[in-house]
Design brief:
The chain is an all-alpha fold. The chain is 64% helix and 0% strand. It contains 9 helices and no strands. The radius of gyration is 24 Å and the shape is elongated. The protein starts with a helix and ends in a 9-residue tail after the last helix. The relative contact order is 0.06.
Length: 196
């Protein structure tokens, strides 16, 4: 989801009244009923959905801001695969209030997106804030071990480590190269390793 403030055309310091006015003006402009006999109906429906989601996100964030961040709510959103909503709530927490759990949950979202480096950095920060927390340490160690290839994971690090004296390919590069070579063999009518 785009930045909800950007969708509503307001800045983050807008008052509640300014937020409501911006929402009303956009709703009048893009309400699908205004386009029922037009080829713009589908666009208006999607736009209205985006506007409603942005408004709800901003207003919920403001309400939460007055009572603090509810990490249990974020965990429930993550469990229900509602990553955008969880991320929007986390984004509403000021940087001075970001604690170990904030970084752990952000890392969980990043991991769900497949952003392994970002997830690992967040888990590492969570562990540095609360080294005794077993949940954070377990997530960080599991991710770190999988990246190294321990526990059956894939080693995606560059094996051109000067200490290893090896080539410039990672294991992913090798697999990709083999798949491409196999495709070329099949396309050009040649025999490949699997055909021999």
């Amino acid at each position: 989801m785009r930045d909800p403030y950007e969708v509503l055309g307001i800045n983050q310091n807008a008052t509640e009244e300014e937020i409501k006015n911006a929402y009303r003006n956009l709703a009048k402009k893009y309400h699908p009923d205004n386009y029922s006999d037009s080829n713009m109906h589908g666009y208006a429906t999607e736009k209205m959905k985006e506007i409603n989601e942005a408004y709800d996100t901003v207003m919920n964030s403001r309400r939460r801001g007055s009572r603090g961040c509810d990490y249990n709510e974020i965990r429930n959103l993550i469990r229900n695969n509602r990553m955008n909503e969880a991320e929007n709530i986390l984004n509403s927490v000021s940087s001075s209030n970001r604690n170990a759990e904030w970084y752990f949950l952000r890392g969980t979202i990043y991991l769900n997106y497949g952003w392994i480096n970002d997830a690992e950095n967040c888990f590492k920060t969570a562990v540095s804030y609360e080294p005794e927390n077993a949940e954070y340490a377990s997530a960080y160690n599991r991710l770190k071990n999988n990246r190294r290839g321990d526990n059956g994971g894939y080693n995606t690090t560059n094996i051109n480590d000067p200490s290893s004296g090896c080539c410039t390919c990672s294991s992913c590069d090798v697999c990709t190269g083999l798949m491409c070579a196999d495709c070329c063999c099949e396309c050009m009518g040649g025999d490949c390793i699997r055909c021999i």
